[in-house]
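User: structure tokens for Phosphate-binding protein PstS, please.
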Amino acid sequence: MERFFRQMRGLSAATAHLCGLIAITLVLCPTVVMADPIRGAGSTFAAPIIARWAENYEKARMDDGDFSSPDWTVDYELVGSLAGLMRLDQPELDFAASDMPVSHEELAKHGRQQFPIVLGSVAVAVNLDGIEKSGINLTGPVLADIYLGKIKSWADPAIKAINPNIALPDLAISAVTRKDGSGTTFIFTEYLSSVSPEWKATHGADTLIKWPVGTSVEGTQDLIRAVQATKGAIAYADFGQVKRANLPYAAIGNKAGKFVKPGPEGVRAAASVASWDEAKDFAVSLTDQPAEGAYPIAGATFAVVSRKIGPHRFGRVQDFFRLAFENGGKDAEALGYVPVTPQMVSQIVKYWLKKDTAASQ
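Assistant: Done. Predicted tokens:
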């Protein structure tokens, strides 16, 4: 799924009867016209849930759902948040998915809208023998020093001090990072910048980082494979994919001094104290929030849509995400994400209406 997925189902039973098997129909039945798919690109962090929502959207079409657009399919290309945003200038793209919020000024400059579609956590995965999932603690300053190249061994006193009950091996730490423009990288480095003045001054928060140490790979799947193949490895990736890969992951010390595991509960706690009402275009950071149960490396994925695609295509994107908000919450939770709340959905719909009115004037 790391390259590209296309869901192509939804031909009616009558059409299938007239043209035979669906696979043959597409070749032999010239009267069948498939509508153009909704096309998106960007975040690998949110790719699993977007794929699931695409399946749900097609099912709604087959079941004669009440959603307005006639299109049955969603194509989504996993290219990373930065590349997805860059592709919005291509006329065929309907939306980009980004784990980095775009500023109000940048959105206004390019005539774009932005709204959150799902929340999630970035897990810190490790490959250490004898470490159960979330059986190791790490803090922000320790993580920053690892990625600055200052902490080089799992037996470093700074790591031992927060893991007194673990026999840590004297094994070199092998950091694995993303070399493509990644929103997951943005969330992770935004967190490092909030806990380490040195990291903030030398590297900051961005989708592309010139990493001081480690091995850089493209995409989440290559990153996970690199961790699985390397003893002593450490890396960052979305929680759901780390969990499905059966990789051990760390509990991270938060602002309240609690070690919190990645996952829905910690994300909900972080989102509960975020200033959604005050932010323009929902540009909110969930990293290092002060709630007691907050997981500190949390973030949102945003859909970014250009007004240049026109009202019909913009309406199709709204249609797709409206179905996702209404019926896709359980799927999000099953994959390790947190769905946007009903209150947030109400805010998003009001935002759509406000922007629609402004665009028509």
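User: Anything notable?

Assistant: The longest strand covers residues 112-126.
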